[in-house]
Design a protein that fits this description.
repressor; about 60% helix
Length: about 100
């Protein structure tokens, strides 16, 4: 696992780093745009990748997009990535190539 994906940053620090309020960050979690981990005590933990994603979300919101549109864009992006991985796998299988 990359250091960027390790969930070790608390919500207060994320708020300071992004300029977003704690309330905004929680709202984006409620809208299922970000997925922090929870400690046994319920504390949210974020990664640097989550922070980058929050900044992207904030930029989209500034550009006038709604959270439902952002979620749809993310779903389409993930679908394209999966499709591309499948195509690469089929090409590798057909031509005996390895990563």
């Amino acid at each position: 696992m990359s250091y960027k994906d390790r969930k070790v940053i608390n919500i207060g620090t994320v708020s300071e780093m992004t300029g977003l309020s704690v309330r905004q960050i929680r709202y984006y979690e409620e809208r299922q745009l970000i997925f922090p981990e929870r400690t046994k005590g319920g504390t949210r933990k974020f990664s640097f990748s989550d922070i980058e994603k929050l900044m992207d979300i904030a930029n989209h919101i500034e550009d006038g997009l709604q959270t439902v549109e952002i979620k749809r864009m993310e779903s389409q992006r993930k679908h394209r990535q999966l499709r591309n991985q499948m195509i690469r796998g089929q090409i590798n299988a057909a031509f005996g190539m390895r990563k």
